[in-house]
Amino acid sequence: TGAIADYERTVELARAAGDEYLEMVAEWELGGDSRAAVGKPMTECVHHMTRARLLAHRLSSRTFEAATVSRLAILAANEMDFVSAVELGTEAVAVGRAAGDDEALAAGVRVMDTSAFVLANEQALTMHVFDVAAAGVMREICEGAEHGTRISVK
User: Fold this and answer.
1) Could you tell me the pTM of the whole model?
2) Ramachandran region of residue 149, left (φ > 0), alpha (ψ -120 to 50) or beta?
3) Three-state SS at 128
4) φ and ψ at 73, to 5 degrees?
5) Measuring CA to CA, which residue among 45, 1, 49, 5 is closest to residue 25?
6) Sign (positive/negative) of CA torsion 42, 91, 115, 148?
7) Mean pLDDT, 10 residues at a time, over the chain (154 residues)?
């Protein structure tokens, strides 16, 4: 489509000008929903998002790096590669924490939630969802208290 061609041209021009920030943003767009919306293979999205991730790391843009790792985790989950999705989600959480950016951290956590739900469903496991930040709740659950919600495929 026109938008994809525009972003591809932007990558070319950004590289020629040595503008890594602009290149990173254009690679992000090429790895995002625009390709998936027109039926392009996920591998193309992964290629561009990986490139955006490398640029974000090189530019020390931790917030952007966390966002790209989160997106890569989502792409892995879409391909039913939940092992990679969890690994990338864990990395996205770590990068989000290091960035000190709540939005980046939340993106990593959302990916972890999605991967956990799908894995639990595939394995017919019951999930126990509760507020881990609540004081004493973990101990109380271990002692048999019923906090939170249990979700199962039954």
Assistant:
1) 0.70
2) beta
3) strand
4) -65, -40
5) 49
6) negative
7) 90 97 95 80 88 95 88 83 82 83 71 69 76 80 85 68
